[in-house]
Amino acid sequence: MSDKHDSADDQGDDREPGTLLEQMGGIGGLIYSSVPIVVFVLANTLWGLMPAIWCALGTAVLITVVRMVRKEPLQPAISGFFGVAIAAFIAYRTGSAKGFFLFGIWASLIYGSLFLASTLVRWPLVGVIWSSLNSHGKGWRADRKSVIGYDIATLTWAAVFGARFIVQRWLYDTDQTTLLGIAKLAMGYPLMIVALLVTVWAVRRADKRRHLLESDKEPEESDDEAEARLRSKYGDPAAAEH
């Protein structure tokens, strides 16, 4: 029985980094998402705002078509297209090239605030999202070490979004459009990959502890009883602050 659990754990650990990356569109998706930004910045420098908007939109459409032809996952491409479309619309309405980055700037503030707030109320978003996607329930909250791991991962995401907002908002206010484009690329997926690595660490840590609990679970013991036993062993993370 324990050998099966160990085998399942090993397979799960091997899949986790790949699954997270695949949800972002894989390595190709990371590259594709950067192309419209580069095209916009270059076109704006050479020809001005309107040609830059059309070039960015055209590039996003072309990427979507290429992914369809190659039968690659469409969700990242479609999401990327709508992101470029919203950014282009804001740039058109504001009449300024820097408006192309405004949506992403404020989105970073909102996301960062949500991730930070979730740790303050002891429901770290990384744990909530992962357990919801995999139907793991809320038992992880009874394990203080799992909660701490998810807190660290969630705060890492909050720091990434917070850094993006602070730096890019300053560049926006000082009208440095070219540097704003460079900052968006440099602070985009490179920082996200760092946050993903921390997330994978937290997920693996929590999942191993969850599997350990399940392997020790008595045949007639309910999930609530098992959770209560874990809570008595490790303490209540919500009460640990007091």
Helices and strands, in order, run as: HHHHHHHHHH
CA-based gyration radius: 22 Å
Q: Please bin the fraction of helical residues.
A: over 70%
Compute the number of structural domains.
1
Shape: elongated
Biggest β-sheet strands, sense, barrel: none
Global mean pLDDT: 80
Low-confidence spans: 1-18, 236-242
Number of strands: 0
Count the DSSP helices.
Answer: 10
Structural class: mainly alpha
Distance between the terminal alpha carbons, to the nearest Å?
39 Å
Report the sheet-strand fraction.
under 5%
Explain the layout of strands and helices.
Elements: H1 2-23, H2 26-47, H3 49-69, H4 74-94, H5 102-120, H6 125-133, H7 144-173, H8 177-186, H9 189-216, H10 223-234
Helix pairs in contact: 1-9, 2-3, 2-4, 2-8, 3-4, 5-7, 7-8, 7-9
Task: Give an overview of the whole structure.
There is one protein chain. By secondary structure, this protein is mainly α. Helices cover 80% and strands 0% of the residues. The chain is elongated and about 65 Å long. The model is unreliable at 1-18 and 236-242 (pLDDT under 50). Residues 217-226 have a biased composition (Acidic residues). Residues 213-242 are annotated as: Disordered. Residues 227-242 have a biased composition (Basic and acidic residues). Keywords: Membrane, Transmembrane, Transmembrane helix.
Provide a brief overview of the structure:
This protein is 80% helix and 0% strand. The protein has 242 residues and is mainly α.
Characteristics:
single chain; about 240 residues; mainly alpha; about 80% helix; about 0% strand; elongated; disordered N terminus; disordered C terminus; membrane
